[in-house]
Amino acid sequence: MARNSSFTDTLLSDDELVNKQLAKLHGGTQRFKTLARIKLSKKKFDTATRLKDMWTKEDEKSHEYKVFILDTKPLQTKEKWNELIQKGITHLTIEDNDNKLKAISPDVSNILTLRSFTLIWSKVKTIPDHLLQMDHLSELRFDKCALKSIDNIQLGQALRHLELTNAGLKTIPLEIGNVTALMTLNLTGNQLKTLPISMANLNQLQTLKACGNKFSVVPACIEELKTLDTLDLSQNHIGQIPDGIGNLSSLTTLRMSHNNIAILPASFVNLKRLVNLYLGYNAFAEVPEQLANLSALQALNMASNGIKTIKATPKSLKILLLDKNQLEELPPAVFECEHLEVLQVANNRIGEIPAQIDRLEMLRTLHAGGNPLSGIPADRCLPPQLRHLSLCDTRIKNPPAQLRRLQNLHLLDLQRTEVKESYRRVLQADDIKLLVADLTPEDGQQEENKVSSGDATGPLKSQGSKIKRETLYPPS
């Protein structure tokens, strides 16, 4: 392994260190200042190595100095806080896995350079006043903490980014409306059934994430947040999107997957800036026609609904996910999306891929596995830019050998098909490397990477998907 302290992801595992029976983790690993992950399974440690604080000094231009504290015992001493003060840290993260931290010391308010504070896995039940009153603290994050209440939240007048995630919160106090500098609010993974109407006062809020709660309706205050750029209400119990959603004219990303939504309101056509729309795992029987009028829309996920027909689609689409529906064919509306780069229609009832597929000249990824396909068109009908083609779990027996002439084809998935070995020999004879990948999503997982307006050409990867590559050679 090269000596490189700039590693951002170092893995120490049996795969990486074959036949290395480690019994000790040497102190030199502390040089990896940006270490993000370390795997030490199946080794022969007889003692647990104490993980020390991880310090990261950014370049002089950014003026950022970060520390990640894993051992909270020293935080009970003045000496430790004085060290943090003297070094002028800007970002402090404390992970309290052993629950030794009883309270957040008032000494934290003496770190005048501190801009971001994060607490993880702690039984601290309240956010102390002295932390909220730090006028230079702009980011506050409590994750997996046992917060009982945040009734003093109005003290955080300087906060711009607030994350209270996986904390078991059942209510948000009215006082949240007084924290008017907020630009980002993340309430993911709580037990909220509503949000206070006072949140309508947050006139600078750009991002609101409240997925994984217990909403049955969209909270009324959201309709008034006209500065919102990103809204995430996925994994709730919402049955209807209110007409007031059309007021959010600045919205570019809307995530409402894993709800019970069947229709969109007429006002949805007012979301002229919408770029990313995620409606997977709902109850739609068709792709809503309102979407055809959204000329900025680039990524649309409607996987795992009950979609049988598609009457119209936005022609601006670059990514279209329709896996796990009830489509019996690829309708003409899909072939009007001339900018389409990723098309996923796996696990439907599609019997053939029509020749019109060649109209999608920009298409790079086509996932059509899990359909009753018995054939595919010759390569002259397949888009020339195609790089990834998944036909796993189909009835295909003899794909046209001309596929090898698709010069950009990088990955061809033919797992669990009846393709004969002779087809593989044809590819091998022309020095074609046939790659097989399992691109079948795991049950219940088909989430998307955000495709922003600044990077809309990147392929949409499915979180929870397994990609395993192996080269197929003819038998020796």
Automatic annotation (TrEMBL):
Keywords: Leucine-rich repeat, Repeat. Residues 439-476 are annotated as: Disordered. Residues 114-233 form the Disease resistance R13L4/SHOC-2-like LRR domain. GO terms for cellular component: cytoplasm. Residues 467-476 have a biased composition (Basic and acidic residues). Pfam families: LRR_1, LRR_14, LRR_8. Residues 451-465 have a biased composition (Polar residues). The keyword Lipid metabolism does not apply. PROSITE patterns: LRR. PANTHER family: PTHR48051, RAS SUPPRESSOR PROTEIN 1 (PTHR48051:SF1). This is Disease resistance R13L4/SHOC-2-like LRR domain-containing protein. It comes from Paralvinella palmiformis.
